[in-house]
Design goal:
mainly beta, 6-stranded mixed sheet, 4-stranded antiparallel sheet, 10 strands, 0% helix, globular
Length: 114
């Protein structure tokens, strides 16, 4: 069974950058399309970015041009590079598989504040 573990979340100032990592174990990450979601306090969990098995990417309008999703199948890793961070990017960020079977990570907290 696939297991996903996110890391890299921390406190960062507005305008700063951060890279989140999603590490897979128990199966081969290359079999799956992977998405990053985020959930701010009191809000629903929203899709941030998606990368397919072939490397095609899609982004929420709110992060286009600032966030980049990438994958390294050899390392069983998916990344989310976040630049020009804003306070409204504050949330718990989750990675998950995208497709017939849902596997979620436990989340990592990103706080954007001065």
């Amino acid at each position: 069974q696939l297991q996903l573990v996110e890391s890299g979340g921390t406190l960062v100032q507005p305008g700063g950058s951060l890279r989140l990592s999603c590490e897979a174990s128990g199966s081969t990450l290359g079999y799956y399309s992977i998405a990053w979601f985020r959930q701010a306090p009191g809000k629903e969990r929203d899709l941030v970015a998606l990368i397919t098995r072939s490397g095609t990417t899609n982004y929420a309008d709110s992060v286009k041009g600032r966030f980049t999703i990438s994958r390294d199948n050899a390392r069983n890793m998916v990344y989310l590079q976040m630049n020009s961070l804003k306070p409204e990017d504050t949330a718990v960020y989750y990675c998950k598989t995208w497709g017939a079977v849902d596997y979620w990570g436990q989340g990592t907290q990103v706080t954007v504040s001065s």
